[in-house]
Specification:
Length: 253
């Protein structure tokens, strides 16, 4: 199983094993991996030679295939409550946090490499739109025209989280579910990047994110795998981001 954070939480709730790829080394662009996932991204799940891609689909597949500790609500209404949350991750939130991560931090890793390495990496990205977006964020960072739309993409979900969490400790009334699993790595990344102002503006979301982070499966499936080099890079770049983000979320008169 080759996966990102949300899938590793799911596998910990169901005790599955996995082998993470080395993305900076270009594992996802290797021919053998592209045969499994032609999008050259993670995650990919291989179960007895059956290949499943896309995080949300993989999480539901795991829950269906190994149902001893179900993470989907038991009834159809509960599942209908859950799926709009996970659907949003596939419809822009994942891409948005990737853009923010690159604008703030990861671009500096590529700037430190040679122009030839950067050109080769970009050329191997199969999607034209993604390639153009990464070129812009690489060149311009926080001044990229992709930065603000990515940041603003999180405004409404945080408002919606706050409303939902007024009635329950979790996004779905029944309890901790694939909705929390889906968002766990994104909540952590937003804090690491310096977007704490979003949480400060939404106290229920802040408390919820802390509950999610303390979940044993999240500690094992997300926090254990934080890359120390990434954390150091986030810490280095975060102070400059915090003041800018605070002004954007809480503009003065």
């Amino acid at each position: 199983m080759r996966c990102k954070g949300s899938n590793s939480v799911g596998r910990k709730e169901t005790r599955l094993e996995w082998c993470p790829p080395h993305l900076r080394r270009g594992d996802a662009q290797q021919p053998e991996y592209l045969k499994l996932n032609p999008n050259a991204v993670v995650p990919t799940l291989v179960d007895n030679d059956r290949v499943i891609i896309e995080s949300t689909i993989i999480c539901e597949y795991i829950d269906d295939q190994w149902p001893d500790q179900p993470l989907k609500p038991r009834d159809s209404f509960g599942r209908a409550q859950m799926r709009p949350w996970t659907k949003q991750l596939d419809e822009g939130l994942h891409s948005a946090v990737g853009t923010l991560s690159f604008c703030v931090a990861f671009r500096h890793q590529w700037i430190a490499r040679s122009a030839e390495e950067r050109a080769k990496w970009l050329a191997n990205i199969p999607q034209l739109e993604r390639r153009q977006r990464l070129q812009s964020t690489l060149d311009l960072g926080l001044d990229s025209p992709f930065f603000m739309p990515a940041f603003e993409r999180y405004y409404k979900p945080f408002d919606d989280f706050e409303i939902a969490l007024d009635r329950s400790l979790w996004l779905v009334d029944e309890g901790f579910s694939l909705a929390e699993i889906g968002y766990a790595p994104y909540l952590a990344r937003l804090r690491h990047l310096g977007f704490g102002a979003l949480f400060d503006r939404h106290p229920r979301v802040s408390q919820w994110s802390e509950r999610v982070a303390k979940r044993p499966s999240v500690e094992e499936g997300v926090e254990r795998w934080f890359n120390p080099k990434y954390l150091a890079l986030f810490e280095e770049k975060r102070p400059g981001v915090i003041s800018r983000m605070s002004r954007l979320v809480n503009p003065g008169p």
